[in-house]
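Sharing a chain and its predicted structure for anyone who wants a worked example. Both blocks are below, sequence first, tokens second.
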Amino acid sequence: MGKKSRRPAGSVAAPSAPDAEIPVVGGREPCPCGSGKRYKACHGRAALVEASRLVARPFEGLPAECDWVALREIVPAASMTVRLAGPAAGEHAGSEVHVATVLPMAWPAMRRNDGNVFVGLQTAGSPVDPSRDAAAALLGALAGAPGTPVPDTSALDTTYRLQDLVDPAATPEITVHDGFDFWLDPSAEQTPEVRDSLERANAAVVPTRRLQSVEAAYWCQVGERRHLRWVMPHPEGELLDGIARLHAAGESGLGEGTRYVGSFRALGIVVPVWDLTPDAEAGDVEDAAKAFGERLQQAMAVTTPLTADERRARSGVASRQLTLR
């Protein structure tokens, strides 16, 4: 004889919709499925599992994905203004916040006394999904009082990702800085800790400029050497085939005295790198970068198999790759 049901007579179980139809809410809020449980104890369990999975391209789907990768991985001092949108942004939808490469004391986020919110990308957070960590820091700063930082994200709600908060229709405004003075709130007195952090950070800045003729290409000077690092969104196989075709044809450089030296992977994106001439400024490679981009598009459009020379070039191109998480 089967066990008797403990459900009161006449009661009806709450309907359970497919997980894909359950909207995401805060972990302590009632689950939208109608079970009466908190979200984190109901459909939020699946969201928690999802949050623990390594995301190969954490900024995919954001406007200017390649610049997000650049600010996270290769640019020392820059900021990007983005607009918030969507239900996850709540009352802050339509407002603007600032994404920075790094913040004082390596804080994940801060809200200045003047109300401006900054989120840092180069933090010591989990490598699983930087987008989720940044979203948690952003929401923490939005909820915080003016003049307070978000010192860590360990106790914050990681339900949302940046893709849930950033307006996909708004083009970010990107500014590369010579130092980190953009941190400072003119109306606030700076603590000795912040001033010391600022001085140390400014002393370590590598001169960097963002090109205007192409997207997500950054000139930099490291000691006496100058380079161009260009974050490209193309599928890796197609990109490397295209570069190999150009390399075999002697067209992979950016003008006389420059050379393609290899690439690295960062957050699921390939970043080709060139050595430039010792006196090359950012403006000197604008036209050459634009012309290379056009050549690359043509090379990637070729559908015939690689020639023997191109295969050798492809092997050399692939062997000069590194991977950054």
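Comments welcome. The helical segments are 44-51, 65-73, 130-143, 192-203, 236-248, 286-300, 308-319.
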